[in-house]
Amino acid sequence: MRSPLVVGVDIDDVLYDWSGRAHELSLAAGIAGDRPPAQITSWTPYVEYGCSADSWHAVIHRGVQDGTLYSADPLPGAGAALQALVDAGHQVQLITARGCGDFAGLTSELVRQQTRAWVDRHALAHHGLTFSADKTVVRTDVFVDDNADNVARLCAAGTRGYLMDRPWNAHVTHVDRVRHIDEFVRAVLADRGLG
Ligand SMILES: [Mg+2]
């Protein structure tokens, strides 16, 4: 049996439909324009909506303050996928940039509290939960993230980085691209050239 792997997993738009939730809140707030897009397709949704960045940040900020942004269920299959990694003997490290930086003046600790509570509430199998914009702060063997820059940095640090397929990274050429956390877990468990 090969040795266990340290498996890094991003949360937003990997385990959690952050962009979908943010879009719902934007629609409800009426900032998404007269002909709103079906979904967010970039890191700058306010451009897609035709509203100001401040308006969008205000919606996100309110979603944090009233708890609506981070309170939805995990994406379907996310919990089972993490459990499958743990059951196979691997170490799961959840590493998220939530609560990092000063995005829209959010209260970092509030975001972190909500995230810890969400992970506990859904009993997501994991060995560590780290809040960091730099995903290389925890040494990992393999990692899945939807941010192509993060994946590039992880690969440069020696981690096999998988890119979660999302509209905002569709232009990036990357060999290890997955469309769902299930697909990532299958790749890890199949030991496709890892180790
Ligand atoms: Mg993400």
Automatic annotation (TrEMBL):
Transmembrane segments: none annotated. GO terms for molecular function: 5'-nucleotidase activity. SUPFAM superfamilies: HAD-like (SSF56784). The active site is at D10 (nucleophile), D12 (proton donor). It comes from the Bacteria. It holds the Pfam family NT5C. One of its GO terms (biological process) is deoxyribonucleotide catabolic process. Belongs to the 5'(3')-deoxyribonucleotidase family. This is 5' nucleotidase, deoxy (Pyrimidine), type C protein (NT5C). It comes from Ruania alba.
